[in-house]
Recover the amino acids of this structure.
């Protein structure tokens, strides 16, 4: 009786696609016949068609296997493409009726003024620390400078706003010192225009020099002691977003005396996408309310320098005290160099991602010497207490303006999604084998049916 039941299980009849009855046995041949009968996959019926000879069946089998391998290969390529998380960038240029004006930071290449250092007989001492000379005596002038940090020295010796700016025009109307703020950057004591984030930003509704900022700058060459940040005479100017930290040593435009400089700016906005497709992001900063990559990098440098030296540079924020000149010589300068070259330093690589949304200002510069007639005809009207000889050597005129009202915006988008992958895989198998999602369901149905009938239900056909 048990043998009879076994025979019934092994010889359960299955109706083929052409209406013939095929006995489904335990052999691979019968299993293949049932599979070819039940699954609607292009070419499978040729393998069990009685009118096809052995040679033609082998040819069709090779063709089907080749196309199957090709389809699987293409599927692997599509999965690999999805895992690479590709993105595309859409660049569009739009005309705007009103554009916010950037913050403008201006720094004199000369760090300290000679007339101010001479008052306390500190000129030689200041020159030595500006040039980073070692073994500087802090008491050689009869005055003890050993406890003076950089912030204090900037506050009493640096060129101030009223020393550098003779006149200022905003959209052809005079502006005054209240429109500026003084700040310490990595180039020393500087001043900024349109930088106060607690007040609305200035904006323009037309392009051109008449709708921008005009600065009359006094280089004060007779007050030069020296610079740690270059060998030129004049100013460094940077147009930047109001929320960004101006790193003047690595960016900006140099402006020299005796020249009229035109700085045309174009606004660009970039919107990136974050993980898993992109790497942009943000994190909470200790000293800044608004995240920017430059602010994060500055915090990293401050922490690195503070741990190495126990102090920080004057333009850095944080709880560490400002370094004295002696501490800068012995530790601070080396720490700043080591921070860039330290392969174990992970702060910037892992903790300072690019901003997902940034606004940058591309600057185009052209210069021309200031004409003689300007000094002869206008100097008496503009600069009451400056003679022509002095102005020829020290005056720098700077126009900062938008060259057009067009804004270039770059937006990143996901270039390949899961749905795209499924469609491509379906297209590959459809082209190679004429397969579809229904074909996949038929294959699953066949194996589920076979599993239940052969192993679970004791030969009883499942519902």
């Amino acid at each position: 009786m048990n043998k009879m039941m076994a025979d019934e299980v092994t010889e359960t009849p299955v109706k083929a696609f052409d209406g013939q009855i095929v006995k489904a046995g335990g052999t691979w041949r019968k299993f293949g016949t049932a599979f070819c009968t039940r699954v609607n996959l292009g070419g499978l019926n040729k393998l069990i068609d009685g009118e096809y000879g052995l040679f033609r069946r082998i040819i069709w089998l090779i063709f089907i296997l080749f196309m199957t391998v090709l389809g699987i290969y293409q599927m692997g390529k599509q999965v690999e493409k999805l895992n690479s998380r590709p993105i595309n960038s859409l660049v569009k240029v739009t005309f705007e009726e009103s554009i916010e004006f950037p913050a403008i930071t201006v720094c004199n290449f000369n760090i300290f003024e000679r007339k101010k250092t001479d008052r306390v007989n500190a000129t030689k001492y200041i020159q030595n620390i500006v040039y980073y000379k070692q073994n500087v005596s802090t008491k050689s002038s009869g005055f003890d400078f050993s406890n003076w940090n950089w912030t204090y020295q900037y506050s009493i010796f640096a060129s101030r706003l009223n020393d550098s700016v003779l006149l200022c025009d905003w959209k052809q109307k005079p502006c005054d010192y209240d429109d500026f703020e003084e700040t310490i950057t990595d180039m020393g004591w500087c001043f900024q225009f349109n930088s106060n984030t607690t007040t609305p930003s200035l904006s323009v509704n037309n392009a051109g020099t008449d709708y921008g900022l005009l600065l009359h700058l006094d280089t004060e060459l007779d007050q030069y002691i020296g610079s740690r940040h270059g060998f030129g005479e004049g100013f460094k100017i940077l147009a930047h977003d109001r929320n960004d930290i101006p790193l003047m040593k690595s960016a900006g435009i140099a402006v020299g005396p005796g020249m009229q400089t035109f700085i045309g700016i174009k606004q660009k906005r970039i919107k990136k996408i974050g993980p898993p497709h992109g790497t942009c992001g943000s994190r909470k900063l200790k000293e800044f309310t608004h995240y920017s990559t430059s602010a994060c990098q500055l915090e990293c440098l401050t922490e690195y320098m503070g741990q190495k030296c126990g102090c920080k540079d004057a333009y850095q924020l944080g709880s560490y005290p400002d370094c004295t000149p002696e501490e800068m010589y012995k530790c601070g300068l080396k720490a700043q160099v080591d921070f860039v070259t330290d392969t174990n330093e992970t702060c910037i690589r892992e903790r300072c991602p690019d901003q997902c949304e940034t606004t940058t200002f591309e600057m185009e510069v052209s210069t021309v010497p200031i004409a003689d007639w300007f000094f002869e005809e206008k100097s008496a009207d503009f600069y009451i207490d400056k003679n022509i000889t002095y102005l020829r050597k020290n005056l720098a005129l700077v126009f900062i303006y938008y060259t057009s009202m067009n804004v270039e915006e770059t937006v990143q988008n996901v270039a390949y999604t899961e749905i795209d992958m499924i469609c491509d895989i379906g297209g590959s198998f459809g082209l190679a084998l004429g397969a579809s999602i229904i074909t996949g369901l038929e294959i699953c149905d066949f194996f589920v049916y076979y599993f239940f009938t052969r192993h679970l239900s004791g030969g009883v056909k499942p519902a």
Q: What stands out?
A: The first strand starts at residue 12 and ends at 15. Residues 129 and 246 are 24 Å apart (CA to CA). The two ends are 26 Å apart (CA to CA). Residues 54-83 form the longest helix (30 residues).
